[in-house]
Amino acid sequence: MKISMKRRRAPLVVLAAALGSLILLAAAFASTILLLADRASGRDFSRAASRALHLRLQPLRAAAASIFTQDKGKFRILVSGQQAGKEEFEIGPSGENWTAHGSTEIQTSQGAAHVNGSLELRPDGTPLHYEWSTTGAKKAGATIVFSGVTASVELRLEGMRPFTQQFTFNSPRVAILDNNLYYQYAVLARLYDWNQKGAQTFSVLVPQEMTPGTITVESLGKQDVAGAKLEELRVKTEDLEIDLFLDGQRLVRLVSPSANAEILRE
Q1: How much is the pLDDT for 238?
Q2: DSSP assignment letter at 65
Q3: Considering the domain boundaries, does residue 4 fall inside one?
């Protein structure tokens, strides 16, 4: 499924939520108790022990400053009620940043095509690096490096010389929504400010189409879906409407009525 964009710019609204602070506090408290116990027995922490404690606390601090939580799963891609493909994805921390990776297999008239996309983000959702590749009837790929409000693209098409292009946005926080990589809508759902609610506008880039634009995301509240209460987000462009359904922070269903497509989590 492709997402169409009108070429215009708009500021991005995101939530920089503090997660995991209670865990961090507990770890610091436990470390203080150990330090007091050592001093009471006439000992003190060695430099090695202090460094080890610092390294243990680093990922907790990163988690506390991140809007993301770890997630891993599979999607079934249905078109007109028939399975047309599948996707596996994973979102997790990588050092001080986060990575979100997906791999999709799509059935086409020319056989199976594969799409891979790997996105590196800051804890607040700002993209740093994105790479995609496709294999099948044609091979292609691109690398995108984000620096401030600028995205520098190097596109590689089979049998052709690399092509470069730059895009400039109003904000460094840009949503990546690539073709047939639905885990990126899970990332988009994390960017949405759930406390503020309402309609929120995001700058967006569709890398395989080399197209920038804007989208509007709005919460429609909890919906009863097959007996489960799920949060619904509506994603709209100039000519496309997509509904996301989430169980907590987990994307479990995506529906595009105009494309007659549905993506279901296994």
Answers
A1: 84
A2: T
A3: no
